[in-house]
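Hi team,

Below is the intake form for Putative phage nucleotide-binding protein from Paraprevotella clara YIT 11840. Please confirm the fields before the structure is written into the shared record.

FORM ID: S-0412
PROTEIN: Putative phage nucleotide-binding protein
ORGANISM: Paraprevotella clara YIT 11840
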Amino acid sequence: MSLIKKSNELVIPSIVKIMIYGQAGMGKSTLALSAPKPLLLDFDNGVKRVNMAHLDGVDIVQITSWQDVQQVLQENLSDYQTIVVDTIGKMMDFIITYKCGTRQPQIKDWGGINAEFSWLTRTLSSLNKNVVFVAHRDTRKEGDDTVFIPALREKSYNSIVTELDLLGYLEMRNENGIQKRTITFDPTSRNDGKNTCNLPGIMFVPNILDKDSNPTVKNDFITTRVISPYLGMLQKKKEMQEEYEKLIAEIKDSIEREVTDAKSANEFASKIKDFKHVGSSLEMTRNIFSAKVKALGLVYDKETKTYADKAA
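The structure came back. Fields below:
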């Protein structure tokens, strides 16, 4: 079987890898914990800053070494749908310490460091878990412009971003004199982003605590406003794939039963476009049909654009 696949034939995942970044005090950790059934890997010792109301039902691992991560990922995590990594910058520091000890990483070390990160994402994917990385905000100069980016070492940044489905920048915006918290997943001239499912350009993140720091609504923004639309997009792709596979199976059966000689080949060729094609099914149908007429030894006349039985 060929390893080359059409878009309709791809294995479609059902999990999401997200990174949220922003300056201190934006509520990044709280927002990350709005993902479904989270387990918090607290690398930054920042759980103490999260309102206790938002920790109800949340289990926490206070990380002290990279070995803690290796151990917890071998435990039974079936109760959780999401792993929250807070923060990814501190997590990379733990990996560097694990690989390099107390010395600064050298060029030769980065392959192994990035391999540990890839191991983490592969392991979580194999466990069918969403991942939400939390990162602090840094800046990058692009000519005269200052671009906000996640605070990560440059050697790690590109390899990490390629693993993500969504990258969101959380900030405060002034809307008619009122400060509102927003997140954008769109890459712009002032921030990095990654938006693979056409989420709105700017999304307002509501304040869910009253003046006494009591919750007013459920903390579920990531679940309902980010992951749900993303999974909806994946579901549509899956449905299209299933429709494609069903159609191709029907076409293969029709060709096998109906195409037996030149006359039937010409009749079938005339109705190839009549099928309700999905994605690349027209191209696939033509390939299956061509293989069939070749097996029958039929001859194609370019002038009449018809098939004829092979002359004796």
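SUMMARY LINE: DSSP finds eight helices and twelve strands in the chain.

Thanks, M.
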